[in-house]
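can u do me a favor
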């Protein structure tokens, strides 16, 4: 029977933006340096254009994707496999924005399939551990010619002026639909739940350690890549529907995200039982124990990240701790 697996930090090196200290603080072990702002948890995908970088490995050295593919029903459950095959449908990250991220967007599945031959697009959601400003969507309709001019001239002030700015605090969450231009502000620290792809189209790169003119369009050229952009002006109340303030349990993320993934913040003061199913646990505070069905208890503490297979059955979680449980969509 497959058992829960405690996963070590998996931080792709030399990213083009700064961060990493908050991941080290949370996990107590992580890569050194100031350009390791992401920890890819239970990853079955790679960085765009890479053969291995980004894939998670178990403590015994095996690749997580290979372990899942070897016994998908044990890991994902028969209903999931019947609906999606051995695809986990999920990638979880810790992301520490040591500086404001550039304005960018992620394509949806139809665009990714048509232009990149990818199974998924990249919807994502952020559970906020440390807050600050985030930029979400345009606040007015933007003409494609105007967008082209902003990108070509790297007119960042104009881009940001045309976007909604939302202040988020710990315990909030934000859903980012495919196509929506966005940027995470400096100092924001998140648990990110997303479709398992690394597909980013940069609208901004000035001042960042990347050649955006060459690398910011997924090899498609901006004439094609920018077709993935949601250019419409989002009313403030619609942006508000993407942001959940202090959500718990099933209400942690916006309902719109459920077709792509699920996540719930759980605060456990003594004991709780979690239903069976593939999930990724990120412990954000406290300490306790994790007990799968018909197995012994193991310690669970702040900074632990655990891949839980369907075959582990119902889980008993004891102690005093807070965690984010991330799951694929309901089949």
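np, heres the sequence
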């Amino acid at each position: 029977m497959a058992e829960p697996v405690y996963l070590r930090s998996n931080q792709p090196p030399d990213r083009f933006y700064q961060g990493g200290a908050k991941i080290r603080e949370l996990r107590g072990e992580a890569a050194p340096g100031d350009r390791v702002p992401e920890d890819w948890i239970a990853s079955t995908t790679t960085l765009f254009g890479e053969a291995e970088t980004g894939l998670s490995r178990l403590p015994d050295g095996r690749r997580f994707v290979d372990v899942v593919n070897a016994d998908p029903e044990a890991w994902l459950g028969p209903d999931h496999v019947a609906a999606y095959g051995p695809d986990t449908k999920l990638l979880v990250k810790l992301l520490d924005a040591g500086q404001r991220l550039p304005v960018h967007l992620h394509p949806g599945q139809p665009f990714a399939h048509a232009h990149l031959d990818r199974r998924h697009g990249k919807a994502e959601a952020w559970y906020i551990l440390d807050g600050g400003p985030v930029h979400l969507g345009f606040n007015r309709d933007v003409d494609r010619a105007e967008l082209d001019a902003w990108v070509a001239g790297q007119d960042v002030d104009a881009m940001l002026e045309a976007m909604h700015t939302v202040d988020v605090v710990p315990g909030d969450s934000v859903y980012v639909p495919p196509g929506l231009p966005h940027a995470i502000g400096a100092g924001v620290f998140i648990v990110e739940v997303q479709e398992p792809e690394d597909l980013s189209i940069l609208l901004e790169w000035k001042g960042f350690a990347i050649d955006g003119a060459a690398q910011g369009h997924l090899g498609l050229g901006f004439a094609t890549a920018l077709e993935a952009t949601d250019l419409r002006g989002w009313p403030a109340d619609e942006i508000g529907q993407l942001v959940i303030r202090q959500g718990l349990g099933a209400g942690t993320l916006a309902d719109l995200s459920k077709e792509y993934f699920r996540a719930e913040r759980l605060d456990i003061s003594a004991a709780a039982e979690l239903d069976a199913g593939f999930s990724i646990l990120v412990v954000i505070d406290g300490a306790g124990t994790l007990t799968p069905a018909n197995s012994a208890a193991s310690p669970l503490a702040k900074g632990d990240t655990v891949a839980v297979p369907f075959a582990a059955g119902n889980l008993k979680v004891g102690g005093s701790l807070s965690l984010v449980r991330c799951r694929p969509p309901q089949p």
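The radius of gyration is 19 Å. hope that helps!!
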